[in-house]
């Protein structure tokens, strides 16, 4: 063996052995070794399936030793949401400091349960922009609609998880069953990024900015019942113990937490070698909006940091742009940008939901009103089918599958420019993400990863998975009811809110 090759092999072997020996002390030792071996670069692995995204989150939370920071737009009290809450509680019990920020609009949790979790000495929960749900009685909701319409519509769409400041996940998935292929009627085709290294530090800085913002209010303050405009909710020590006991009992039941899933989480380290081979250590920029999005007070416009970053990325395209977004409603500024691209010869291909697959009829109405204009500009649009051929491969999971295949809808928010730069995040291509909701994501300068993500989108665009909007008349495959409702929505002045 040549001297330089022998030295390299010895160094590599020593690194693997040190990781293996340290693994007895820390479950993150393998990850620590990878970070140390790639200074100044961030590791990124694409979580393309619901099962892999769920197992990654579960394993990270189960093995956290110091801190967990969680930020989500939706947190449901379905099976996945309850099990996630119980996993965070177990982490807190073993001494991990847990901090959670959830947007107020679509949080789904009983008042006493939410307050009981917040009362744990190692758990802090804050609600972003609480104007409609947590601690808000009906009379205050109505007042907020009348006096602060823009504020009511300004939401935190961020989705992040960081563990021990070392590893993080961001992307399109919320904390609910349909984002991990466990809903029996309706599931999403989504995409996340598993991160390690410097990008996680930037993600954590964003969390701290939201945590320290006046828009993120501690749960306890929302239930103190001062005046008619706030709910009065209290929990005694016995009620708190009962909530914790019920969560633990729920998670122990095989009917709620399938043994196959639990075994798969425990078995996650066996995937480390495969994940390591597929992980790219490269330049990864975490992009985010500041709390409040922008300084606009009266109008529904204003843009944001993520909007500017993505517009700049797209405007720099030389040959092709490939986009995957569940909702496609272009503002006039976006129309001008993409029109300019097409005129200079850049190919633009977009994969979005069809009327048959969409979960959001108002948003689809905005797209339907401008679909002809997009096609006339030369943009190629492919609309996702509710039962795409790729669904069977994407929905492979631990535990029994539903007897009847559910509707499958697109929810991934991804952009690839010139087959060399990729964005994976929370940004929908619509005015709401552009101007109202705070958004996050990663911009990755890596041709291998970009081509891999682009290939996945191209597969989703293929005839077995999507209809060609130019020639297939996708609306004809939707129910009469959906077609009727979407026509009605088209008459309403909803575009800035879509």
What does this structure look like?
There is one protein chain. The chain has 498 residues and is an alpha+beta fold. It folds into three domains: 9-39; 41-276, Endonuclease Chain A (Endonuclease, Chain A, 2-Layer Sandwich), CATH 3.30.870.10; 284-497, Endonuclease, Chain A. Helices cover 41% and strands 20% of the residues. The protein has 19 helices and 18 strands. The protein has helices at 3-22, 29-37, 50-63, 79-93, 111-118, 138-147, 149-153, 198-211, 219-222, 237-252, 259-266, 272-278, 305-315, 332-343, 361-377, 391-394, 431-436, 447-461, 480-490, and strands spanning 42-47, 67-75, 97-107, 123-128, 160-163, 167-171, 186-189, 192-196, 216-218, 280-288, 320-324, 347-353, 380-384, 407-410, 414-417, 421-425, 440-445, 466-468. Strands 9-4-3-2-5-6-8-1-10-17-16-15-11-12-13-18 form a 16-stranded mixed beta sheet, with helices on both faces. A two-stranded parallel ribbon has the order 7-14. Helix 5 (111-118) links the parallel strand 3 and strand 4 (123-128). Helix 1 (3-22) runs antiparallel to helix 2, helix 3 (50-63) crosses helix 11 (259-266) and helix 5 (111-118) crosses helix 10. The longest helix has 20 residues, at 3-22. The chain starts with a helix and ends in an 8-residue tail after the last helix. Mean pLDDT is 91; it is low at 1-24.
């Amino acid at each position: 063996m040549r001297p330089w090759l022998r030295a390299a092999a010895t160094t590599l072997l020593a690194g693997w052995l040190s990781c293996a020996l340290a693994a007895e002390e820390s479950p993150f030792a393998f990850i620590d070794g990878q970070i140390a071996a790639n200074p100044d670069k961030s590791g990124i692995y694409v979580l393309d399936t619901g099962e892999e995204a769920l197992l990654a989150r579960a394993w990270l939370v189960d093995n956290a030793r110091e801190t967990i920071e969680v930020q989500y737009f939706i947190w449901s009290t379905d099976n996945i949401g309850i099990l996630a809450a119980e996993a965070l509680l177990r982490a807190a019990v073993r001494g991990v400091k847990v901090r959670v920020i959830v947007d107020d609009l679509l949080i789904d949790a009983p008042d006493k349960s939410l307050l009981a979790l917040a009362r744990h000495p190692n758990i802090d929960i804050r609600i972003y922009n609480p104007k409609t749900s947590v601690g808000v009685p009906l009379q205050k909701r109505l007042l907020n609609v009348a006096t602060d319409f823009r504020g009511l519509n300004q939401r935190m769409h961020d989705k992040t998880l960081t563990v021990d400041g070392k590893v993080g996940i961001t992307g399109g998935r919320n904390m609910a069953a349909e984002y991990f292929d466990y809903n029996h009627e309706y599931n999403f085709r989504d995409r996340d990024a598993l991160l390690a290294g410097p990008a996680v530090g930037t993600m954590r800085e964003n969390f701290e900015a939201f945590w320290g913002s006046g828009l993120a209010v501690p749960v306890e303050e929302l239930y103190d019942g001062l005046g008619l405009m706030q709910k009065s909710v209290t929990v005694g020590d016995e009620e708190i113990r009962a909530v914790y006991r019920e969560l633990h009992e729920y998670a122990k039941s095989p009917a709620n937490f399938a043994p196959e899933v639990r075994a798969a989480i425990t078995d996650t380290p066996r995937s480390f070698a495969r994940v390591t081979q597929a992980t790219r250590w490269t330049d990864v920029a975490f992009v985010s909006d500041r709390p409040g999005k922008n300084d606009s007070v009266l109008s529904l416009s204003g843009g944001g940091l993520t909007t500017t970053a993505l517009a700049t990325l797209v405007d720099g395209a030389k040959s092709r742009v490939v986009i995957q977004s569940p909702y496609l409603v272009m503002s006039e500024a976006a129309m001008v940008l993409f029109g300019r691209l097409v005129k200079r010869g850049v190919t633009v291909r977009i994969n979005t939901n069809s009327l048959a697959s969409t979960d959001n009829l108002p948003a689809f109405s905005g797209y339907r009103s401008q679909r002809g204009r997009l096609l006339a500009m030369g943009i190629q649009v492919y609309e996702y089918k509710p039962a795409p051929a790729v669904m069977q491969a994407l929905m492979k999971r631990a535990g029994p599958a539903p007897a009847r295949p559910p509707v499958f809808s697109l929810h991934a928010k991804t952009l690839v420019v010139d087959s060399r730069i990729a964005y994976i995040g929370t940004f929908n291509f619509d005015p709401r993400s552009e101007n109202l909701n705070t958004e996050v994501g990663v911009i990755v300068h890596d041709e291998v990863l970009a081509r891999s993500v682009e290939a996945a989108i191209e597969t989703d665009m293929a005839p077995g998975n999507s209809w060609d909007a130019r020639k297939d008349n996708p609306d004809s495959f939707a129910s009469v009811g959906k077609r009727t409702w979407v026509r009605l929505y088209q008459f309403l002045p909803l575009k800035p809110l879509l």
